[in-house]
Q: What sequence folds into this?
């Protein structure tokens, strides 16, 4: 593993730790999904503006796609968190490898290997278990939003890779602006209270703003599928924080589905590393 790839992985791990705070903070707030999504994105946009200094108004095709994918991801994820369990919201979002693998093949010409296909099948099995839980508890609306966030998250990882040499932080800035504008008509009356304001600031500045600054630095060093794989700490920690601080205990189908998805993602990476190690050893022996 080269230095740049190691650097990218470390940045992704830090990013996933910050992302994992979303569920517990959103559950603690009295705001609805559009209010959380819009105000969080507005604060995050201001945070990222302080980093990029000056917005770039040059929009390439891939930047527009990244902006749209980003805004839909944070929008659907916030709505999902307010309408289903934190575990289902984050785990269904992590169906992203399915879409990043397909879109990575279409746009980046990244090969889909046997282990990718196996992991995709296993992820779909995990999704079926999560959806079963959502249907039985009446959380189908939140689960549907979470599934859509998985599609857009997978697309985001690919389009951010396409923008890696064109300051991807700009895409995140404009994506947050777009999310705020899209949610503005649906916010209604916002309840102002100390807990809501504190949670909104932490969500906007750290959980979303700083995390995506780190994320945009990481995408230059890893593949589209690895972006999802090495962010695996988020779906593990997110429901744990909610369970500890909110008492929301995942149901048995959620635990089974989540374990299946996480095992599929981690197993795919172990399989890939072994394949690359054997291939490198074979090339050395051939020389």
A:
């Amino acid at each position: 593993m080269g230095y740049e790839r190691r650097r990218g992985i470390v940045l992704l791990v830090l990013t996933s730790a910050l992302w994992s705070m979303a569920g517990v903070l959103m559950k603690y707030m009295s705001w609805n999904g559009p209010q959380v999504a819009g105000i969080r994105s507005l604060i995050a946009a201001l945070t990222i503006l302080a980093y990029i200094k000056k917005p770039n108004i040059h929009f390439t095709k891939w930047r527009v796609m990244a902006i749209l994918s980003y805004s839909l991801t944070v929008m659907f994820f916030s709505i999902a968190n307010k309408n289903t369990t934190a575990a289902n919201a984050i785990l269904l979002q992590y169906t992203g490898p399915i879409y990043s693998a397909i879109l990575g093949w279409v746009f980046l010409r990244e090969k889909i290997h046997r282990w990718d296909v196996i992991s995709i099948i296993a992820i779909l099995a995990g999704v079926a278990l999560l959806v079963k839980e959502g249907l039985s508890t009446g959380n189908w609306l939140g689960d549907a939003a979470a599934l859509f966030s998985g599609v857009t998250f997978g697309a985001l990882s690919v389009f951010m890779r396409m923008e890696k040499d064109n300051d991807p932080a700009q895409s995140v800035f404009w994506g947050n602006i777009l999310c705020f504008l899209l949610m503005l008509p649906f916010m209604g009356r916002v309840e102002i209270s100390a807990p809501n304001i504190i949670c909104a600031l932490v969500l906007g500045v750290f959980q979303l703003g700083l995390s995506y600054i780190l994320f945009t630095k990481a995408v230059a060093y890893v593949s589209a599928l690895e972006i999802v794989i090495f962010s695996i700490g988020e779906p593990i920690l997110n429901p744990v924080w909610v369970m500890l601080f909110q008492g929301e205990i995942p149901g048995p189908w959620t635990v089974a589905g989540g374990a299946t998805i996480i095992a599929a993602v981690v197993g795919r990476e172990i399989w890939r590393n072994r394949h690359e190690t054997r291939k490198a050893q074979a090339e050395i022996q051939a020389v």
The first helix runs from residue 3 to 19. The chain has a mean pLDDT of 84. Residues 24 and 242 are 5 Å apart (CA to CA). The chain has one domain: 3-286.
